[in-house]
Amino acid sequence: MNVLLISMPDVAPIIMHEAAFHMPNLGIASLGANLDARHTVHLIDLVRKRRGLRRYLTRMLLQLRPDLVGLSAMTWQFDTCLKLIRLIKTVLPEVRIVIGGYHATLMYEEIGADPAAQAIDFMIRGEGEAALRGLVNALEDGTGLADIPSLSYRRGDRWVHNPKGALLDLGRLKLPIRDQRRLTRGYHIMNHGAEVIETSRGCTRNCNFCSIRHMYGRAFRPFPIERVLADIDDIYHHRHCRYVFVSDDNFVLAPERVKALCKAIVARRYHSLHFTVQADSVTIARNEEMVRLMARAGFSSLFLGVENVSSKNLQAASKGDIVDASRRAIALCRKYNMMVVAGMIFGFPDDTEAEIVANFRFLKETQVDTAYCQILTPYPKTGIRQALLAQGLVTNPDHFSTYNGMWANVRTRHLSAERLQYLVWYHKQRILGWWDPSPSVRAQGRLWTGIWIYLMRPLMQKMVAHKLRRIGWQGRYRQEIARLGGINRFPDLHD
């Protein structure tokens, strides 16, 4: 069978410009790799084809003539997914469509009942390697679908949802596709070529704003260290790539495993290999030896879940009081020259302007390298969504295209959604100011940080100062919101 797997073109430029960070979709790379060898599979990451989507995808569909097209989408990307499906069915009316990813996992019943999704033939819920392999084999062999766990499929005019399957043995998964079957190129972080790996799946934390449990349950499963090293070897020796994003939901949940992995990486003697990971503040704060080994192994950038500096807000998020742990975690990372990207969430029910200011002042005071500032988003099937709906604080319950952290879909008891959106933007500009790369960041990228410091930043400072004199903060905000609002609009996909 001829299979084409596609990831979405939508981006969320919360940290940096939308053109500065394009990563391959690891999900479709793993799904494709674990199909049986008798099938032909190709991958397309549409984040690399954001311009001219219709022309490019039409050409590739006619060239490849797939029997089955799979699309992976998060909740905020699903509107684009439906537009792409309509295009695919226009070009190849007989092709069959399967969707997967977070949105299909969370909302399969709602999707099945939606007339706009009638062109979808199958849905895969949760971990997908075994389910997709079973589906492709069944379609090729003409066998039944009833025994494929985690698969949903049409039977006449109704949907059948098979029972969810058991979690997979990660040690048996093949390495992701990174060869010529991946039809798109040019993945990067700034001016560095970049790839993605995973060393574990799942998270055992209680954060009620997160939907990860719907994918993997409340479980944490590490890949065998030998398998992780083989994955890194593939990226380093065969793809000649030196920047690796680790997609684990929380890389540091098992500190002893992290230490063992770091020691194994050091023993490999990779040269100039850099890793970026995601971690929680408490584990980092309690494990200095782990942080030291991470830095030695090349873990040079860390996304740290600070979340908020209000004890009440942290309690609302089921995080516990982690402010002191966040301070210590940031200090430890700086001690070992690791770049810190601090994740901060705004818009909890009792937030006023004062809480917004306090969060930004914390980021400024602790001297994080940059901040990932999101507005609290009521993602489907999360605990925080139910709480916010019950309090009447969700202002956009149904239109999910803005559910990417950039937009205010909630209000607080003191701030409208529009005021919340503006104040988060305004105080980020006023308090955090212009980005000043730390010495550790400059060491990682002397060329591009030098261009930013000595050329781009002075030029942009002059341009923005002129704009402020002319139109003020509100005028600049309206221009920026208009620009961001158009980032994920693809005119050539409109019917």
From TrEMBL:
PROSITE patterns noted in UniProt: B12_BINDING (PS51332), MTTASE_RADICAL (PS01278), RADICAL_SAM (PS51918)
Keyword Transmembrane in annotation: no
Pfam families: B12-binding, Radical_SAM
CDD domains according to UniProt: Radical_SAM, radical_SAM_B12_BD
Gene Ontology MF annotations: 4 iron, 4 sulfur cluster binding; catalytic activity; cobalamin binding; metal ion binding
GO cellular component: cytosol
Cofactor entry: [4Fe-4S] cluster
Entry keyword annotation includes Cell membrane: no
This protein's name: B12-binding domain-containing radical SAM protein
Originating species: Desulfatitalea alkaliphila
Lineage: Bacteria, Pseudomonadati, Thermodesulfobacteriota, Desulfobacteria, Desulfobacterales
